[in-house]
Amino acid sequence: MELQSAGENALILYLGEQVSPEVAARVHAASAAVEAALGDDLVDLVPSYASLLVIYDPMRTDHLSVGHRLRAAINELSDSESLAGRTVVLPVYYAPESGADLESLAERAGLSVDEVVSLHSAVEYRVYAIGFAPGFAYLGQVDERIAAPRLSTPRLKVPRGAVAIADRQTAVYPAVSPGGWNLIGRCPTRMFDPGAKPTMPVAVGDRVRFEAISRDRFLALGGELA
Asked: Same structural domain for residues 113 and 75?
């Protein structure tokens, strides 16, 4: 663990040196522990791949006090707590009509479309970080056989719910946006809903599995293909 100042009322906690499921789980556990330790002194927590940004109320406390409490909270974490995190199952309709790059990715990998789907849905992914847009969860790691570089020319419009791969990460686009990832399917689950509690179905450190569903099931769950 390494703790550094990140501004007048912020500290950043580094919990690992490289991206891994174990480090992501540690960040998740640390978030809960820090939130409990700081209570009303806490303004915000921003988890990332291997770090946790802690923003506190400078009218209530200071760097020294927050630093002591952060170290104590992290030192008290057990291995079982670090490996905690929910398992979230996300349904996906994998098909050329829902994933514009599914066939080209399969051809480039020397696999059939069914093999790509099988490999993508066989892995349990960790939520490494949430960023780019609210609800955009970076998940890793995909099987190296279906890893694919970002598109040389990003699309101007990627549909909400698009399931995609870039390098060895995968994600679900939470809203219509530009994007350069390889699209392989579509998920009907809303990845960000400002009116819901919680607003996102996943958090950093959670585990995600994708479950292949039919076109009819996708539409019945509220999915859109337009």
From this structure: no
